[in-house]
Amino acid sequence: MSMATTPTPTTTASGPTAEQHGIKKHSDGGWGVVPIQTRSERFHSTNVEDFPAITGREATWKYTPVARITELTSSELDGSPYDVTTTDTAGVTIEWVGRDDARVGKAGAPEERASANAWTSFEKALVVSVTGEDDKEFTLTRSELGQGARGAHTIIEAAPFSRATVILQNTGAAHLTENLEILVGESAALTVVTVQEWDDDALHVATHFASVGRDAFLKHIAITLGGGLVRLNPAAHLVGSGSDTELLGAYFADAGQHLEQQVYVFHDAPHTRSRVTYKGALQGVGARTVWVGDVLIGPKAVGTDTYEQNRNLVLTDGARADSVPNLEIETGDILGAGHASATGRFDDEQLFYLQSRGITEDEARRLVVRGFLAEIVQKIGSPALQERLTDAIEAELTALEPSTSAGAETAGPREN
Prior knowledge:
Layout: H1 18-21, H2 70-74, E1 85-86, E2 92-98, H3 113-121, E3 124-130, E4 137-142, E5 149-158, E6 163-172, E7 175-184, E8 189-198, E9 203-212, E10 217-224, E11 229-238, E12 244-253, E13 258-267, E14 273-282, E15 288-297, E16 305-314, E17 320-329, E18 336-344, H4 348-355, H5 361-377, H6 383-397, E19 409-411
Parallel strand pairs: 3-5, 4-6, 5-7, 6-8, 7-9, 8-10, 9-11, 10-12, 11-13, 12-14, 13-15, 14-16, 15-17, 16-18, 17-19
Antiparallel strand pairs: 1-4, 2-3
Pfam families: SUFBD_core
Family: Belongs to the iron-sulfur cluster assembly SufBD family.
Protein name: Fe-S cluster assembly protein SufD
């Protein structure tokens, strides 16, 4: 299915026009294009051919080592169905559906080439349907995707008034680009937890589109511990009055690992609320994390309450964290909006306090990092998964060499 749209950077159906902003096209170089000023005006299409080849100079790709994922952005992909393992949970069903299913494309459409390549390539979409007002937990595991370049499409649909926690567990080998659509019906309460524990050489590029209905609540939690290059971009569209979302993330990058998150929240209805909190730790030469947070408060979103923050703890020399929060406001009638970003090393006072009570420096550092990331892990709501992830983070920390924790390379703004 191809749903290409023609770029119209100077005007949108519901957004402000170039004339309102007072912006004009470039006069030098023969350019006839007005730069896109608003996040919602980005070009989007489900056809990969509508996007030019990626150079790495594009705003959305400038932090990503694009040469490592060329097979996912420029090559043909295997879009066939694959094996999954699921728990048997009352009120949750799964099925493979064709590209013409009415739910495909309801939550959003690709804004960049990797996402469009996955959309162009998938043969069938995997749909997880949630019904019933009782709390329930469902786990879907993917562990046998293999080394071949693959494109995939998944849809999670929560019926009105339903309640559930859906856990997407990713392990093993993978060279994967995919789209996940999340449809949260009226007054539903859905938690989606995606856990990346891929093999060390895995490649994973994903866009998660969420549409949150009237008085509905979505909690989206991304935990990334494994994979050579993982780029996960959640985008939440608050389309119903009173809709609410929390986008949370925790990540731990080791030497040579690139972990990237570009988060987008679009407040497009009145009296909506969002909270974005991502926390990461880095250790080892070449460990790299990227977090870009975009929040757009549209002209209809009166009464919006939003806050986004990113915190990074750099444990050793040779690691780098980039952190870029952005906020756009197109109405003056809001409850509140803010953002913050901080990247730093261990708090010496915390370490001194712990050591003064007989705790060794090595153990003190592990306790600090464990507590730093626990804020996110403890919000999952699944005791078994929380315990397992806490153990996985502890295993990551056993490789930390105290003697190499003296400095760090950081980029991005400090506290705002």
